Amino acid sequence: MKHEERRGKLFKDGSVPNWWGMHCADLLIAKPAHMLFRMKRVGVENVPDGACIMAGNHISYVDPIALWASMPQGTIHFVAKSELYRNKALAWFLDSVGAVPVARGAADRAMIKWTSDYLAGGESVAIFPEGTRGREREDAEELNQGQEGAAFLSLRTGVPIVPLGIAGTDKIMPKGSKIIHFPQVVLRFGKPIRPSDFEGSRKEKMTAMTAVLMKEIARLRDEARALEKEIEK
Q1: What is the pLDDT of residues 219-228, one digit of tens each?
Q2: What is the CA 149 to chain-centroid distance, rounded?
């Protein structure tokens, strides 16, 4: 059965599945990662109860695990590029933990429906607006241009976006390294961005929300980096 067909059956009755793989991975991967990388969460009080859209900078393949391990409550589903599903073992794992494949460069109706269903069911969704890992230079000031998927989903569902700054994950296995390092990882959660705070047409709101979101992510990333350096002293 194709991946798309499996996904379609999950929401046949309108309910959100109980992801067994997510609970296993939370115990076997997320919790150990939280301890090993000394993950520090700042601003957790900004994460609202119920569903939200988490959106942060993307500097490492470990970012989803770091966010997963640091979520204060509830289930979170990650939007993952569809290319990852070409590997059958990885596709099985991503399915098991409730990830959502997205075809980049086009309007993905299936992704929109799945993520909307999750959010309607009270479960959170994580998106990295840059669409790919950003520049890894420590002194890089600008993020890659943000895509509008997070704002689109927020406007569609009424669910707030929580901006997030991540620091330290790029040092876990830096380029050229063959061993895993255990640096300090910091996640800085910002105040929710709500669609009701913006005016204008749908397109104008989406553009404005994305601009505010990317500015907040950059600010929170810088705060996370500063705190990471302070802790490491």
Answers
A1: 999 999 998 8
A2: 12
